[in-house]
Amino acid sequence: MGLESDRHEMRGFVVVWLGQLFSLVGSGLTAFALGLWVVERCQAATPFALIALFTVLPAVALAPVAGVLADRCDRRRVMLLADSAACLVTLGVAGLLVTGSLEVWQVYVAAAAGGICTAFQQPAYLAATSQLVPQQQLGRAAGMVEIAQAASDILAPVLAGVLVVFIKVQGVVLIDLATFLFAVGTLVFVRFPEVQRRSVTEDASPDSCGTWLREAAAGWTYIIAHPGLVALLMFFAVSNFASGIIGALLVPMLLTIASVGLTGTAISLAGAGMLTGSLVMSLWGGPKRRIFGVLGFDLMKGLGIIIMGLRPSVWLVAAGAAWAHFSIPFVNASNQAIWQAKVPTEIQGRVFATRHMIARAAMPLAFLIAGPLADGLFEPLMANDSALAKSIELLIGSGTGRGMGLIFILMGGLIMLASVIGFLTPCIRQVEDTKGD
What we know:
The protein is an all-alpha fold. The protein has helices at residues 2-42, 45-61, 63-72, 75-98, 104-132, 138-189, 212-224, 227-255, 260-284, 290-310, 314-342, 348-359, 362-383, 387-396, 402-424, 426-429. Helix 3 (63-72) packs across helix 7 (212-224). The chain is globular, with a radius of gyration of 21 Å.
């Protein structure tokens, strides 16, 4: 009887999830196609990395305001408005492509506008999940969210590579528009359960009621009252910094050793790893000690990233990427379940937005320095005849792209080190059961 009740209660979430899945695939098509468009025109890693920078920067800066909105307003309506605005941004890009007037700087503007939409959509979506899903099913729901991201990662590169040949970039963008409309349609027909709203956390003072600034700070107030959550955020800040550099350099590195089509295939294999991990996570629900899912699988992710940088082989890079991406759903879903179980539903919008702002604050820096690190430091380092370069060449090979390979090895090592430190830090290891955390 309880199982049937849980399934019934999850139906609304499944409908919303399907809409977001299609939307993510569509957005992935556009992102991959436009990324290739920029790389082919600029022939450097820095312009490509700037797309990621302009995408994530607004999401970080606007997170507190977005969190307040997610708690003050109907979360379904917030998602509707955010998805609709993103649809208009995509429509603008399509118009520029059709008229042949798209410039690289306009891609950056579109990325920033899309990042703004994501800033408001994401905390509302994550907080709404707690409304739509029974608490005992949060691990599976988080796994399903990861499946949607994995589906985008595995399908978008292959489909975009094929579709660009036949219908060009503008056709790919039009498909993205259709997926946005589908996502909006699912939100129109699903009703979210009511949530008792309050303007402050239990720890906030009464005079913070009704003020946006104080309510935005309420997410931070809740987090700093729980040291285990603060330490967990610091762990993710380090891991996300390293992952941000890898994400910015993956396509440029692959393009030094493979064609566009083979690059898309390699990235899709990475997506296949993430899809497999997501399916396992959604069926399994994760370890009982969710923090072990976070730290243990992030350790695995770091090892996969090191493998990606070892040799200039597209298949070795693909294998390492698949290994790393297989681990990601377990890390993200376990972390999400920890927060959803510990944070009261009525303040999750603000807390989750603040959480994302802090954990991702290092990512803009990663995206900003990734290109210059590769183009200005590590690639020239591996191209010269110094004793250091020759000794490194014995381990990872030589030629174009090996500087980026060295960056991958260093960043994978940083992630593994952060995971080990996390295991050794009591307030992180005991975040689920420490009183007050």
